[in-house]
């Protein structure tokens, strides 16, 4: 016993010291196979994703492309989705060195990072080292990424607009002769819902009765989606108002009440997960009333849920700041090689081979050609070892190979690009609201909206009494202060344009 | 009241029920309680073997309405990774618990010895860290930039090695052991190490077992350290791997930004959650059962006076 304890003690103490003093070997610079000399710099790319087994192989493949072109190697640093926010906050707080990082309004917050000085302005770098990337988007698009006049994020091209609309099960629409593509307003859906309710005992017409969305009514929610403050996207006067006071909102909640009382949807609210599972199981006739209807979306929906659908947008799409900056890549202020990082971003946004190697993996391993002429691919033998499935994360999504021949047929990327470029920008495009002066009011109003707007929008409460009550509570929470402050900042911003 | 009760008839021989009734009721209550604890576990296991769509339609049940191993298929589609994570967690738990028990008990023992001059300053020093600490960012900087422990096994062990709370628990227990034990051992010619390892440790099994169980649970369930300090997938411990699988799957199923899916992944999210719970629970339940008998005694730590 004594000997054992002594041995254990010595071993423990020794091993602790050894590890603590020596530490792990410095991480080997990625690349391996790729050539390169002492002048080759290495740029890290930190992004949220599943950490796939073959990330190292993809890194090597990327480096064989990058080193000859720009004498730069890339080190891929994927971090699990659930850990990304936490890890990035700590890394920035600890002043860790990084080069390219993924950022967005919804993860690794773009504005917050800029406020904390974590990113560098990219205007000069873009023009000097990324002319192709710079030219690939119109000035109005770049403006969305501007904060105090400077661009801090390289916008990944993907769908910028929110053409909200509905998806109806194909078999049921055909059976009851509903012309989904001819629908102009939600009211026209009513006879179909009634028919389903009367003739299809196993199917509930709707998962929920809310038809409300800002975008669907041409409102640009310039503060956040969480509070009912907006401008009309085409209003050159930039008048800020409370959307809950509009006739559009009233019409929407009254319709929802009518449908709710008729029993077109389950009485209790269903959460996202459950409603997806029930949709998969064929329990609803309409998958949702306010979903993004994008080119190729019907195919995507069928692939995911096994239900063929007709999808129809009920919105005149327009560009907003938040929608345009939804996925971006930035360069850290701790980066030692910002020029090299920008050159990498240039290739990720303009070079089909570089982009697809990162987004899809290695040919013959992770994917194979299904139809090379139309750039359609199919899963390769080792697809499970590298399959990020997040085209929009790495660069210009319109460079991605199609994975379904039907997408290629309708030229989904060209169609989306057209949608982006033909949609008019909101009058407040490029405006970012600074919430600091009205933090309290924002939190209060968001709390009231979170509590009352849901039941109202889905018709669970009677709008005759609940709507005036909601407006009263919003006023008490200080929505007028929000509107005034927003108007002031907006006028100031407009004066500088 | 015309109700007749056996207990109010003073001279009648107590009936069978009167003699055993108390026990019967007690057993019934305990049985009910056991069921209350076991049933949720059983429902989780049953749900993990149910087909996802059926689960949505029919809800949870004591028996799978439609048997399916899809959830386990999904988690185990990369079995080497799970096995590897199991290995990491086992290694960390075993090394961590043994080392932690050793360091904590040794510290506590020294602090419990009244003839140790620096007892108070050291106690205060350790106690101080229970109330005040540098916070997350400084410890992150220390661990990643000075100790360079990122992506090593040690980072999963060292931050939880010394626990002031356990040290004080053990110190309290050690000080209830009579001084006489130590003195008589010394008279018999034992040195300090022998007193510690042959006298104090064997006398403290209940306390040590309790602390060991807590420590095992702590190491086994930890995913936070891995979230902060581990990037290398080969070093993922089990809990973090399960957390990551779930979060990544959740993200891919709910995210509306995602373009069409390559190979059309269908993730049985609800059942996967249950299957993960089942996979993660196994060995720890065994540890609990085997340490339980000490655990009951250990709970009364501090209340025990020298035997």
Describe this structure in words.
The complex is a heterodimer of chains A (497) and B (307). Chain A has 21 helices and 15 strands. Chain A is of the alpha+beta class. Chain A is globular. Chain B has 14 helices and no strands. Chain B is flat. With 307 residues, chain B is mainly α. Mean pLDDT of chain B is 82; it is low at 256-265 and 301-307. Chains A and B meet through helix 1, helix 3, helix 11 and helix 12 of A and helix 2, helix 4, helix 6, helix 10 and helix 13 of B.
The secondary structure category of chain A is alpha+beta
The number of helices of chain A is: 21
The percentage helix of chain B is: 55-70%
Mean pLDDT of chain B: 82
How are the strands of the biggest sheet of chain A laid out side by side? 2-1-3-13-6
Structural class of chain B: mainly alpha
CATH class (first level) name of the largest domain in chain B: Mainly Alpha
Measured on Cα atoms, how large is the radius of gyration of chain B?
27 Å
CATH superfamily of the largest domain in chain B: MetI-like
**Structure summary, number of beta strands of chain B:** 0
Name of the CATH architecture of the largest domain in chain B: Orthogonal Bundle
Main sheet overview of chain B: none
Low confidence ranges of chain A: 13-33
* Morphology of chain A: globular
Average of the residue pLDDT scores of chain A = 87
Secondary-structure element string of chain B: HHHHHHHHHHHHHH
